[in-house]
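Progress against Task 2.4 (sequence-to-structure conversion) is shown through the following example record, which the project officer requested during the mid-term review.
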Amino acid sequence: MDPHRLLKIGLFGFGCVGQGLYDILSREESLPYKVERICVKDPQKLRPLSPESFTYDWQEVLSDDRLDILVEAISDADEAYTIVSEALRRGKKVVTANKKLVAYHLPQLLALQQEFGGVLLYEAAVAGGIPIIRTVEEYFANEPLERVHGILNGSSNYILSQIFKQQKAYDEALKEAQDKGFAELDPWLDVAGADSRHKLCILTAHAFGRTLAPEEVAFFGIDFLGQQDWEYAKQHNAVIKLVASTHLTSDGELVPVVLPSLVDASDDLYGVEQEFNGVVVQGAYAGPQLFKGKGAGGHPTGAAVLSDIISISKGYAYGYKKLAKTTNAPALALDYELEVYLRSSEPELVASLGLTNLQNVQRGTDSFSVIGTVSLGNLIKAQEEIRKAGAYVMALSSDFVGEKAKQAKETVALS
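Structure tokens generated for the chain above:
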């Protein structure tokens, strides 16, 4: 692309992210980028620009050869995949902020780029304004990583901050998050942990060289968090954070999981509050590094989209270095054991999870809570049953170290 020419952008979607990008480019007049066409779905929806500013036919935008870069920022992941895959078949340069789209279709998107020569970047899909994908992809390209974990959802983190810092009830904190635009009217993806799961799948591909299907990741959220659960955390001088994590076991197997977790003041994630995200990347040689930034909002995410626009216009593409190096992708450590807290009204869940090393925490007339050890495989198998029962599960620490790992560490320390 000619560096001196004004580059024209075709934008799909004009919600939080699309408007954030448009506003940034409107303010930064020195940048050689202009949103030339905006495609939206609903002609009746009230928007801050005149109706003449929009088109309603995505095929029309895809076929416009005047456009240099396409930006996809719609909420419907299936529709987004239709648009993005067709754009890649035409060899286009595409930027997306849709984490569900990338998480579910990364192998297909890789194949389309390779076959037709298009390019897809998606920094904005993970952790808002934190440049975490590029960091893992480039800075840690040649260093083995031991673990990547963090708070990847600003909406749920805001809610938890209100509960622990302002003593607000869950429902009140959720409504406040919705009123501020951090959470959707249907907040399930955020509070149930599914959004964090999508982002973890993307990070895992770049960090460990394995494309995870979302179904391979055990995920639990804060949607069933109750007062007795956060009181338990406070009794242990901890707060609760929704933590997404992938790490390698000593056998070289992966442990991908999303779990609410007890976090104390010694933890890197303890001070990540409100709508902020925090990601800890642990290199074999560099050690742990914390990246913190806003994980929700139009401007932080729009800034990440803009960074991709600039990079793609200068010829950058992901090298997928860890994927390229990995001849045999690491297997899942299904027998890996984690220590968890379970609160439920259905005692049969203890058997479904195969909990061992049980300790009673509290027993009431309509519910009970216990601590026990569970395998990753059982967490994956039982997760739908747990959700249907309205039960709450959390890890006892954000490092997700299970009994086997603890014993291994102790053995090393003694030898």
